Amino acid sequence: MTLPSVNRQIAKGAAWMVGLRLMDRSIGFVSTLILARLLFPADFGLVALAAGVTSLLELVLGFSLDVALIQRQEPTRAHYDTAWTLNLLFSVIIGLGLIGLSGPISVFYSEPRVGQLMLWLSIGIVFDGLANIGVVDFRRELQFHKDFAIALTRRLVVFTVTVTAAYVLRSYWALLIGILTGKFVYLVMSYIMHPYRPRLSLAERGALMGFSKWLLAHNIMSYAVSRGGEIALGKFISKTATGLFSVAHELASLPTAELVAPVNRAVFPAYARLADDLPRLRTAYLDVLGMTWLVAAPAAAGVAAISELLVSVMLGDRWAEAAVPIKILTIYTGLLAMQSNTGAVYTAVGRTGVIATLSFLKTAALIPLLIYLVPRHGLTGAAWSYAISTSLYTPYSFWILHKTIKMKQLEFVAVVWRPTASALGLYFLLPIVASAIGVPLLAGRIAALLAEVGLGALIYMVLMFSLWFLAGRPQGAEIHTLRIISAVAGRVFSRLSRADSGGSP
């Protein structure tokens, strides 16, 4: 398969996955806005604490068997049966673990309702284990439109059920009902969408778990990173602080991780096909990095610049304390978005041990900061813990990547410097320009928010393309962007022309 062919597959798959993620998160974002007005931060905090324990157990016994199936060049029926059997076995163990830990966790947090939620969440874990492993073929064969159909159905049902339950109950139970509904819908849809029917088997457990053991270690470390702030705040501060941080983290990551994560999901199968050809793999990686960072960098900077107005409009005054943590967390989410694609490279070339090592270093940097800063500074201490630890870890992460795929420093810098400089310019210039033209004086906070978002996008585009022209218009993400804009504009113009001529060719 030629590199242009792979790149086309990557672009097509990435488009589907970005569309899926944007759709999913857009509905989820609207749901959060509604729920934030029907429920209180403490409600979100309770569910976050219970879900955090659930996530830990899932990661301890989660071997990323779907990734192992994708990485294998020719998996057999025995591999799929073994993966499904192991998933079911682990889900039963996790469910029993939740039941057994419900009491001790209630005592740890001095909150019996957390234990009650864990008992109900154990049912959802069993739903996960019963799901059809065959749907992994949609990613193996780059049929991402089928993933789209499953996710859209699940999100729409969950949105309807959760919002209705919140309106009726005005309680954290609505969030639990939504979680269980989503797991059950996915279980049903996985069997509707794929003909594979599982059989109990452990024939290939050695092959699958041998590959996945390092991913397991990575998952455990990732849990400590993703949930560490919530656990520290729940223990040292309050459930309200936990809820505030949970929502702040979601808003800070929305425009970055929600754009980058689906691209990573799409490119991994393509990277796996290029694993034996480092020059082509390196070229594909740099192309993906350029396109994702072109969008993620201004997204992070923009959210940081308008965090106070964003919280005021989207969440309301009761969430005002989340504004400063959001601003700080964008440092973390931005750097995370820049390096998130590296994991797909390591997995594709079979170096999952590197992923585990880097995750350990990230955790080792974060946990001491949380222990020191959260009791002293609360929400902002948790946010700064993430920002500082990621800033310390990122240079080493890219140094390892450079050695793995034999990438020159200048190749990397050439891809990221223009978006980075333009995003920093956006952050510092947006408040100045907005104040100068009177945006804060607009009638209504919604109008001001929309005006600042549009103004920020304009500032970034002017800066980015100015730097690109000054650099001599090199090959890269800017050219890909212009080609996409040209292609879309051409299609729109063609359709308008046909409409004006009465549909004649």
Please explain how this structure is put together.
The protein is mostly helical. The protein has 18 helices and no strands. The longest helix has 53 residues, at 352-404. It starts with a helix and ends in a 5-residue tail after the last helix. The model has no long low-confidence stretch (mean pLDDT 79).
Give a brief description.
The chain is mainly α and 505 residues long. The chain is 84% helix and 0% strand.
List its salient traits.
505 residues, mainly alpha, globular
List the helices and strands and how they pair.
Layout (H helix, E strand, L loop, with lengths): L2 H36 L2 H20 L4 H7 L5 H33 L2 H19 L6 H4 L3 H26 L3 H21 L11 H32 L2 H35 L4 H28 L1 H8 L8 H17 L2 H7 L3 H53 L4 H28 L8 H26 L6 H24 L5
Helix pairs in contact: 1-7, 1-10, 2-4, 2-5, 2-9, 2-10, 3-9, 4-5, 4-9, 5-8, 7-8, 9-10, 9-15, 10-11, 10-13, 10-14, 10-15, 11-13, 11-16, 11-18, 12-13, 12-17, 13-15, 14-15, 16-17
Count of discrete alpha- or pi-helical segments spanning 4 or more residues: 18
Whole-number mean pLDDT = 79
Q: Please identify the structural class as seen in this structure.
A: mainly alpha
Task: Work out the helicity level.
Answer: over 70%
Please summarize the sheet with the most strands: none
Q: Separation of termini?
A: 36 Å
Number of strands: 0
